[in-house]
Write the structure tokens for this entry.
Amino acid sequence: MRPGGGADLAGKAFAVVTVVPVLVITAWLLAGLPLLLAGRFFPVPMVLITVPAAVGLVLLAGRQIPGRWPGPGAPERARAAERAPGWPAWCGLAGSVVVAAGFGAWQLWANSPQLIVDRDPGAYFQYGYWIAQHGSLPIPPQLAAFGGGHPGLTFSSFGFVSHAGAIVPSLAAGLPITLAAGLWTHGLPGGAALSPLLGALAVLSVGGLTGRLAGPQWAPAGAFLLALTLPETYTSRSAFSEILAQTLLFGGLCLVVDSLAPRQSRILAALGGLALGLTVLVAIGSLVDLLPTIVFVGTLLAVRRPQALPLGAGLLAGTGYGLVGGFVLAGPMMAALAPDLGMVALAAAAFLAVTVAGAAAGLVEPVRRQVVRLLRARPLRWLPEAGAVIVVAVAAGFVIRPYLQQVDGGVNPYVAALQRLSHLPVAPRRLYAEDSLYWVIWYLGAPALLLGVAGLALLTRRCLRALITWRDPSGAARAWALPLMIIGWGAVTVLWRPDTVPDQPWAARQLVPVLLPGLIVAAIWVCALLAVRARERGAGVVAVAAAIACFVAALAVPSAVTTFGIGARRVALPAPYPASAAPAFQRTGAGELAAIDNLCGAIPGGSPVLLLDQVAARRFTQVIRGMCGIPAGVMTNASQAQVEAVIGEIMRTGHPPVLLATRPAELAPYGGTPRQVVDLTTVQDAHVLTQPPASGWPVRYVLWMSGPGTGGGLVSGT
């Protein structure tokens, strides 16, 4: 075996295992969207298409993937690594798999599927359940069951909008398409288990990128630190799109980094661009995170790298997939996002203009020589140092931002209610976006934040120096370029405008796709660099190992304190309720499935349902339509006369109507004897504004049922 052959084999094994998740998910999404658009989204065609495609992608990528990557040290260290044994990669692979598996088992134990629709996870799950059962969109409103259309009768609810005579989801299709795999495999338990599985795959993908950029032996540390953060555990227990976007984003970056190895694989570049683009199918907001790829592709063109066109083509294909899925399947959502999409288009045009100018300067030899001459002269030769200073200054600006600015938006009664519960000044316009960097400190800790910012600053300096001098002997700047741009840009955009209701832990989900894992990767890179420097100065293996253990412990402790609720200050709950567990062990939504089963069993077969108040409509309309298989209409803003008119039309169809509301008084005007069919008290996630959550909060789901003039016979359903 040639020198370093064992390391190559170990490195290839590490690389293949850490990109398998993104390749399998890519194959599933590539098959799922066309079949859903065609109304043929069923298990057999999906398996027949996806399995060969996934196997083919893994085999194709496996032949191209390198076994080595440039480390954080100097080029001399990189050349010395050619003779290194393979144990760092084998240890990195084994450790990453153990961490991911342990995280998945933990999340399965604390799994908290949200079936009742309160927020996005419930809507995503109902979306996935519908397409898994019916294989097509849009959802028919079944007007015939209500005797046709009527004034005051609508079919919209949270996450689902009446549009053009049908019911259209107002969510991206990527996560529901993925959830269908679990629902087909093992019904509702399988669908609920898919979120913890995605969480484990996301942790493995982030570990994969950590190993490529800091050294394979550091991959378990990156995966472990991410797995300890509360936002990662929170989004891995329910149907959150952010965890799937994280898997695609960091898996795609792994493929792009692999494509930049000496072999310069066009195939890996295309697959990496495709995975990055498919994040738009999962979350339209990912368009913002992908803007720096325009500059990166332009730079590759300028230096005549063969990966440029395949990467750009894959990126355009994946992004096009996401936009087609959005405009065809969720038109009202895209219409509502039109102003934001316009701003993204303007930003993309600005990035493209800069890229074209830079590429022209690099491709035209006389211009390139003149630009190089200018960059080597004062003051532009100090640009790398200036870039590092700017990174630190931006971070410092976010630290002092709360003392200089209060970010306000529209009046939100929900925020005002939470302020009253927490005994805060009532200011219903507050968005608390100025505190976004402190959210990072709550969940990641000050040591990881400081090291992450230091890593981003040092890497900015290194990449700018390589760009100015047109020299990158170790290849480290080339490998870090795209991850650095996406992490830095994504961090700034999220911190400046989190674009969320600010209660915790709900708002923390915005930190999951890019910010938290990106800072962790950068912080680990700094630790690896310090370890290399120590070895260069004669430190022994034992001393370096002890230092590494201290690094990881210092980074892990703050996250563990928040996640395990150590010493947390509890906020007064909105109602008396037994103390619930710390966030690490908190299960929310227990009993929802049993409550839904009782509700479905209480509704007589063939009886259309009218929901009369907004709370009931938000929570149960799609549940009744999808999981109960019963036509459901909403009359929350209708007059009594309009409701009675619809009741009369339903009765003419030969079926008794069913009325649902959260209070029996709302049913009294229409006759019958109200009966309580849902009464569930369970735990939900906390809703706090100025600190991380210490435990869950109580929530009670109540639903009353009646039918006009039935005297209770209707509600018995038998």
